[in-house]
Amino acid sequence: MSAPLPDVPEVRVVGLPQLTSGFDLVERLDLSMHLKVHGPLEPVAGERLAALADEITLRGRGGAGFPFARKLRAVAQSAIKRGVRPVVVVNGSEDEPACRKDTVLINRSPHLILDGALLAAEALGARSLVVGVTRDSTEASMTAALAERGLTNRRGAALRARVQRNPERMVTGEASALVRSADGGPALPPGRRVRAADSGVGGAPTLLSNAETFAQLAVAARIGSARYRNTGLFDEPGTVLLTVSGAVARPMVVEVPTGVPLRYVLQLAGAPPLPQGVLTGGYHGSWLDGLSAHDAVVSRASLEGLGGALGAGAILPIGPETCPLGEALRVAQWLADESAGQCGPCRLGLPAAASGLGDLLNGGGPAALEALREVTQAVKGRGACKHPDGSARFLTSTLSAFPDDLAAHVLGGGCGRATSAVLPLPNAGEQSLGSSSGEKLAVDWTLCQGHGLCADIVPELIRLGPDGFPAVADADVPLALRARAQRAVRRCPALALRLEPTGEPPARPTRAALPGRPGRKALDSGRS
User: Fold this and answer.
1) Residue 369 in 3-state DSSP?
2) H-type helices in 338-421, by residue range?
3) Taking the model in full, what pTM does it have?
4) Do the Cβ atoms of 228 and 237 come closer than 8 Å?
5) How far apart are CA 51 and CA 71, in angstroms?
6) Would you say 316 and 279 are in contact if contact means Cβ atoms under 8 Å apart?
7) Which one, of 328, 286, 290, lies nearest residue 308 by Cα?
8) How many Cβ atoms from other residues are within 10 Å of residue 468's Cβ?
């Protein structure tokens, strides 16, 4: 059975290191060692920085793969148009159980990430830098790195920089959730689609990308685009960080040039010679069957062409001894628990999908399969964030990648294999803050006078209708929102709002949010 991954697993490199340079010397590169290993870094003008990102075909490494240069130019144009200073946000909220690459970078080479973020801040004329994290180790390392550079959140500083600590949850990594939490709100998606480049932190244009993306930018700025492109594929140059776990002898984070056969990476981690399947891109990603995984190379285009995904860089093989649908059920149940509880497709659809997969495994036959397909299709494109879509993609891919096992469960008595639980998930005692608190908000319509305070305090659960009265009478309360739901009950002037038990046992939160701690020396030195 797979144990949860540590924050900093074993780190390996194929070829010459770039992002992981110096990892063989020390456990963590402080500012002094960082400069010895990587050397000084001079600022780069705005358009030149965007051109550099274009030349190396830099895309976001957090999953979506959006071109970084387009994002940089969009923020610059919006800031100029509005006449406001933009904000730079580093997303280090890596809360998927199968991903550790950004966590490793923040723990072991935080200054490489800050180099890229400060390059972007200088180029854009930004005066605010926010680094979002969700773990004790990443908060401590990044807070120390800001202090080593003399970066502070004090008023009057040339660049105000701080670490934003959020709960460890799947939806915390959503860009809109990080922006919302940086503004003092809950670390949950707001349910509306607004580009951060137009309106992000404090309403200002915001450049937001994940930790590895900024580190890649810093590497390219040091060595130049020509040398950067000497590594990897022509159309996807450079290296990528992968987290390899699942049915492997040695879970690890590995830096590898694009174009390396995926089977070599799996062999390095001690995966089965011919895995039954390989989950690519993590728990919002897609499965490859064993033969496709053998033919794949490490690149976005190769994996997508075979039906997989690079996504957030998680690679998870499973061996022939386990039931792939049983493995998928464990993940589907976890994904349902990670719901923010803000919209029907997520709050109702994901548990229904997980339950449908369970019915299929328990002998539900063709009717269960059809019901599962219907609920999965109904979830797509209707959520308040990307979590329902990613979860639906995972389930759809599972049904497509293992047709023989699917047929055995639907038409026969099952595949005959137990579930080995090789895909890493949090310990059973670590309940998600997206789990139900066991209570729901209810409105007593005989007392409600339409003051609207409840919708102001907890808009994720209660919205006002056209008549000014709450549009939701009953709303299950996730653990993440229970405190504010209680405050809404206390603040109701008409005493019309109450919390009632739902009949479900409440989950015990074990991953509470910790307050962020504030934390610009020059890019090329340790001087203040």
Assistant:
1) helix
2) 344, 350-361, 365-379, 387-401, 403-411
3) 0.82
4) yes
5) 12
6) yes
7) 286
8) 11
> Going from the N-terminus, what domains does the chain have, and what CATH number goes with each?
25-227 (3.40.50.11540), 231-318 (3.10.20.600), 324-411 (1.20.1440.230), 436-501 (3.30.70.20)
Q: Phi-psi bin for 503: left (phi > 0), alpha (psi -120 to 50), beta?
A: left
Rounded to whole angstroms, the Cα distance separating 89 from 67 reads 16
Residue carrying structure tokens 């995966």: 271
Distance CA 5, CA 400 (A): 28
In 10 A of CB 120, how many CB atoms?
30
DSSP string for residues in 403-423? HHHHHHHHHSS--S------S
Cα–Cα distances in angstroms (integers) from residue 357 to residues 113, 279, 354, 377, 427, in the given order: 40, 18, 5, 14, 22
Could you give the dihedral angle defined by the CA atoms of residues 306, 311, 313 and 316, in that order, rounded to the nearest 10 degrees? -60
CA distances from 15 to 19, 21, 29, 244, 296 (A): 12, 11, 21, 17, 19
Structure tokens at 486: 């209680």
In angstroms, the CA 370 to CA 58 distance is: 41
Strands 436-443 and 474-478: antiparallel
Tokens, residue 490? 């206390």
Cβ-proximal residues to 10 (8 Å cutoff; 6+ apart), any chain? 250, 251, 252, 253
In the chain, the amino acid numbered 59 is R
- State the Cα–Cα distance between residues 53 and 73, nearest whole angstrom: 11
Query: 61: part of which helix (H) or strand (E)?
Result: none
**By C-alpha distance, which of 520, 523, 514, 522 is closest to 166?**
514
CA atoms in the 13 A half-sphere facing the CB of 173: 25
User: Vertex 90, ends 86 and 91: CA angle to 5°?
Assistant: 125
R_g of the chain computed on alpha carbons: 23
For 384, the token pair is: 């308040």
| Cα distance between residue 46 and residue 228, in whole Å | 20
One pLDDT digit (tens) per residue for the chain, 528 residues: 567 899 999 999 999 999 999 999 999 999 999 999 999 999 999 899 999 999 999 998 887 789 999 999 999 999 999 999 999 999 999 888 999 999 999 999 999 999 999 999 999 999 999 999 999 999 999 999 999 999 999 998 999 999 999 988 888 888 899 999 999 888 888 877 788 999 999 999 999 999 999 999 999 999 999 999 999 999 999 999 999 999 999 999 999 999 999 999 999 999 999 999 999 999 999 999 999 999 999 999 999 999 999 999 999 999 999 999 999 999 999 999 888 777 777 878 898 999 999 999 988 899 999 999 999 998 887 777 888 999 999 999 999 999 999 999 999 888 999 999 999 998 754 444 445 567 888 888 888 888 888 887 877 677 777 777 886 544 567 766 777 788 888 888 888 888 888 765 444 433 333 333 333 333 443 333
Hey, what are 390's tokens?
């990613």
What single-letter amino acid sits at 296?
Answer: A
Q: How far is Cα 197 from Cα 207, in angstroms, rounded to an integer?
A: 6
